[in-house]
Specification:
The protein has 2 helices and 5 strands. With about 160 residues, it is of the alpha+beta class. Strand 4 and strand 5 form a beta hairpin. It has a domain of about 100 residues. It starts with about 50 loop residues before the first strand and ends in a 5-residue tail after the last strand. A 5-stranded antiparallel beta sheet has the order 1-5-4-3-2. About 20% of the residues lie in helices and about 20% in strands. The radius of gyration is 31 Å and the shape is globular.
Length: about 160
């Protein structure tokens, strides 16, 4: 006797059906948000000079300064020597860090300026007009980016 295919009257050859795969959905690319640079929204103040600034104070802006220093290191390697030290003029480096602080955090920041209460190796940072800090961000003769010391100014010095 011959075998009969199921549902039919005649012998058939076994058929195999390949499993059907569900179509792979095409991933919709996630749009990369365009970074929005923040800005300082405070007006500038007349420099109070040394009269409103005192050495020391709690480290109010250290986290933002360190993040900005790292961003400048990654985005502007031409500012640094092979050993990581700052190879450009202090005021060039501190201005780059100040711009990055403002762009990343919206804080008002200014690079070192001999005509101001900050020295060339400092960055001045403020969140409001009540207080600012001048922070030394280049370590002496080694010229390594760092946070060495600060002066706290009340009211804000710039």
């Amino acid at each position: 006797m011959s075998s009969v295919a199921c549902g039919g009257g005649s012998p058939g050859t076994p058929t195999t059906t390949a499993p059907t795969q569900a179509p792979t959905p095409t991933a919709t690319p996630t749009p990369t948000p365009t970074p929005v640079a923040l800005t300082c929204t405070l007006s500038s103040r007349v420099d109070c000079g040394a009269g409103c600034c005192r050495r020391g104070g709690s480290p109010i802006f250290d986290m933002e300064i360190q993040a900005a220093q790292e961003a400048v290191r990654l985005e502007s390697p031409h500012l640094f020597a092979a050993d990581g030290s700052v190879k450009v003029q202090d005021s060039v480096y501190t201005a780059a860090v100040a711009r990055k602080i403002t762009a990343m955090f919206g804080l008002c920041a200014m690079g070192g300026n001999k005509d101001h209460s900050t020295s060339d190796d400092e960055v001045a940072v403020k969140r409001d007009q009540k207080l600012s800090q001048n922070v030394d961000i280049i370590l002496g003769a080694t010229r390594q980016p760092s946070i060495v010391g600060r002066s706290t100014c009340q009211p804000a010095s710039f």
